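[Structure tokenization] protein backbone as discrete codes

[Encoding] learned vocabulary of local backbone shapes

[Begin record] amino acids and matching fold tokens:

___
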Amino acid sequence: MKTIERVSIVEYEEKYAAGVAKMWNESRDNWGGDAVVTTAEDVVEKEAESTNLHLFLAVVDEEVVGYCGLSEYKEDTGALYIPLLNVHPGYQGLKIGKKLLLQAIDQTVEYGWPRLDLFTWPGNTKAVPLYKKCGFFWEDRDDATHLMNFMPQVLQIEALRPFFNKHDWYSTSVRPIEIKPDGRKEKGFTFYEYRWEAGDEFVRVQFERTGRGISLIETNDWRVEMEVPDFKLLENKDYPVIYRVENFTSEGLEVSLSGNSSSLVNEDLNEETMVESEWSTSSSVQVQVPDQEPSPWKTHPVIGADITINGRRLPLRTGVFPLQAGKVDVRTVQKYWRPRQKGTLYLDVESRMEEKTVWTIKCPHQKVVEWSQSSVEVEVEGKGRATIPVSVELLMNGFLNEEVEVDGRTEDGRAFSFRTKIALAFPGFGGKFGGDTDTEWYGYNGPYYVCIEKRNHMVSVGSVRSKEDPLLLMTPKLGHPFSEEFSKKMATSVEYIELAEAFVVKTSLESEAFPGIVLNSYYKIYGDGLVEIHHELINNGGNDYKNLHLLQPVFPKYKALALPEKDGVVIGTEALIPYTEYLRDKDLSERWLYTTNRAGDTFGIAWPKEATGRKDDWRFAFEYPLDQLPSGQKICRGPIQIGVNVTTHWSDWREMVLGEVDPLPEKPVFEVVPKEGFVSKTGDEVTHSFRSLLTPHVYGTLTIENDANSYRKEVKREDGVTAIDVPIVHERPGLTTLTGTFRSEGRNADFMTCQLVQGDQKVNVSQAEDRWTVDNGVLTFTASSSYFPGIYSLCHQGREFLHHQYPEAGPRSWWNPWGGGLRYVMDGVSPFSMMKEETKVESVSKEDHNGNHWTGICMATTFHEHEKMKGVTLKQYALTLPEVPVVAVYAEIEQGAPRTFAAEKIALEAFLKPDENLSSCYARIPTEGVFHTYYAGVEEYELESGPSVVIGSDGKKDHLMMIHSQTRKQAEMYMNQDVFLVESVHEWSASSQKAAAVRPTFFVIGEHEEPWKQHPFHRISFKGI
């Protein structure tokens, strides 16, 4: 049996979820080759939250091979909509798409809707012929590839049923099919025409694009049509509209005609007659200009009538664009304005009249700008444009939102006048104001703004000074099931509220899907870029609502995304901008997101505890469960927080949203990680895994090089994995470097990572008088409490890396006393004061969070003399592993003083000298500039350090890399003829009898010549900190 005969169209049920997921995963090439991985659970969740009225599936032998949703169209009234149509690539060309579309059309007819719409993309040339054959017309627009199908209306016309009861409309259609936008253009109108032929019988129906209505119907027996003189009609002017009926039969036709136009059209039409051959009537109409200019997204005002022929109704409708005699817009090419600044505004004028005219435009008096002249005069060609520069002075930051009076005269001396609105915002620091244009409402506080589209309540949040596009909040939805009703509703009211600390825009939307419910949204804009969104639901109806939900979708661009998970923050370090479908939303451990673009513009997003952050198809969304909303009651929820350049780092945004929290390490989206941990022992097998923290599968060839050994593994897409594992046995102790490549059809990657392999030799801690030495077999470090409270020596295979003057501290450069070496410095505590206090050294062993034991020393200094720090104990730890050239340094502060310390600074100082000659010692710091290496001992430099810095000396292979803690406030270097200092500054706070800690800094010795971009050191932390 042919496949097409085995296809059945069924309604979606949960039992088909796995089949739907399989179909999507095998249909990527239909959608640009995206890497989204869909599971049965994803399908169940998505369809449970869907706004579809129906979901039709094409099934062949229990395999799902086609998908077609049917919902109410959210952009316009009077239409249903196909949000998604797909046919499995292995089953294309078998007319499965046709069966799904015809099912959707039949269902639309059954519901009594007149139209079915869908969107596609211009390059979808395979599907366009199918769409057109099924009755869709491709609308000629620049902003969207929108198709409209009027077959549901045609099939509901009683007078045409005799033809369609006898003949299949699909097979008898003789409409030409071309892969381009449709329509015959005439007098500003665009007409779409269907035609069906069956033997000697035919039917012809013509639709007008903007009114979405019929302008002509013709059969073998009769023809009816209407004729409007022009698409664009001037207000308050009489226009003749002609209705015509032709009778092709020998019997008379009983015809009646009654006007049925939009409320903006003034027309008195009501006639009855008997038509023997041909009859026409002319109706005089006037139009009024609507408050909002007609949008290409919505049905325009219509002129029309209901004609009945022998008792059968035929609705005729033609859309029009009501106009004033002219229009004036105000614009500026100047980006930033400040009060008392002079500049130029441009009045752009457009005439809608046929003849040349002269206009006098009166410049309105108001508080925002001062015009250099009270009026301007301009000559405008018929249906022409002109622009007039006008000098102004800005009086205050605000919204110029005024009616302009225009007086005009034609060449023959006829006078006319009209009023039109001009609107232009002048944002600036400290300016708090709101206003509206024809299409949007705005609220500003300084450079930060909220923009609300009138037609669909989509909200943009941004800054006029940002190089990034604004963040988009999509139309809110009420459910369950969720309704798209607000996407085609304009707010019933908008209020602007100025507060001392912020500016608020309040909108109100009235629900029809949930009668009596009013949704008030408050957009609170602070002057520092924070925007808070509160939602208030009021039940003004008589029904009590239970299990009501509010969904607020948002559409961020996930550039350099920071995403919190339980064991760290996923960081987008790649150029890849993930899609929402790529996120593991169920792994979110905290209620925030953060994005950064290459220009440094940031968006922080956060939601309240009572909301759930989750995926909503291709959007992200915040869902509020509202439980009960009795009649006469209200519920307030929020705030959702949007930070526009509020913080420069995700950790600051996290702290702002959550308060004081433990720090989290960063995890790159893609990396090679050891499954058994970053620290192992000689002879252990370690599984090194190239993994993605996004949902798409990883497939390609992974190659890893280690100690002259090469390991290669290939994975195919159908293997369905997000990690590629390579087991490696590390035989030698020390710092093992692994390099490798990943190659796939679409991406190439090079990477480097390392493994700390412990040897069999134990770490030895010895004491000789007050000198404590730690020896791990490959390096030693030494401290002496009587010399200076810190590590003064760090040697690797006999080579010193630190600069000191043991056994006696003394003056050097700007310091006195100077002990050099490596130590933590409390802010406000001089070296003299530090040496007055007693420092005790002891041997310690500390366990990291992976269970590895690090051995070293702790230097504890309790302050007894220093007035500010009296009662505080500073503990400095220096730890290492057997035969591993790595030292971990961190600090703990035990706060025994009867006071509170807040936002105190503590700095880690490292004085370095990896060669006897200081001028041979250098720091390597990659930047975007031309210099990358700086030598000490030559001249004075202050340098900014990156996340890590490589220290070396001429002629030596081994380098020391200092890896700063991610929680540092800043990291810098200082060089002069006497010293080479690397410093990282940290912040701590603690109340009395509490403790604080500084996360570890690592000193790594090896042959690395450049700082590492990726490494696992930041994931090492020690228990108790």
